[in-house]
Amino acid sequence: MGTFRYFIHLAYDGRDFYGWQVQPSEPSVQYELEKSLSMLLRHPVKVTGAGRTDTGVHARNYFAHFDEPVPLSYETAKDLTYRLNRVLPDSIAVYGIFPVQPTIHARFSAVFRTYQYFISRIKDPFVQEYSLRYEGPLETAAMQKAAAMVTEYSDFTCFAKAGSQTGTNKCNVIESELVISETGIIYRVKADRFLRNMVRAIVGTLMEVGKGNLDLIRYRDILEGGTRSDAGESVPPHGLFLENVEYPLGFRADFHDL
Question: Of 111, 189, 202, 226, which sees the most CB atoms within 10 A?
């Protein structure tokens, strides 16, 4: 007898966790979900996420999947969502549970992921926990040009964290832009995959451009063949949000088809 696959649509505040993935002795989002689902469904449940997020990084739209031996009805999934939100920590919110095609995988079937990093340009007590505060002068026009250059490349060895176990440092980045306002800066990037610590390394390097410590010629040299030590330092994780994960059209199943 086969199993039935379900996606969980959720969000989490990363300040309370050492990332998504289960850790030996530290709190994680995956652990909290597996513990709560196992308790409510009364059997061990393994949850597979859309990907790792680093310690302290947040997610607004995250997806994970789990398999069940029997199909869940729409009413059961809705009730399970409600009960999960009752038992999970306040830093995790479940928006819904829905069936998907059995071949859809939360991580490997994702086609694009979008991240945003927030930089506050003023002292604001209501955003300081979720943005990097920097009030010094920045050459934002140069930063915008540097951000746009990212889409011209596919090998991001210069932004790869040392010691990361990845088969390739290549990523297909289709959006990379800096949005400027009077009170802050948002860096937005969309790609099929990201290297560990990659977005924070990009933002840290853009900050060096903005401060005038790195001109655009040297910045391009880093993109073309630099190492991690050539790029800027990684910015803190609390300003980084996984904004969305996209899947192929038609990946959802219908409760009535199960």
Answer: 202
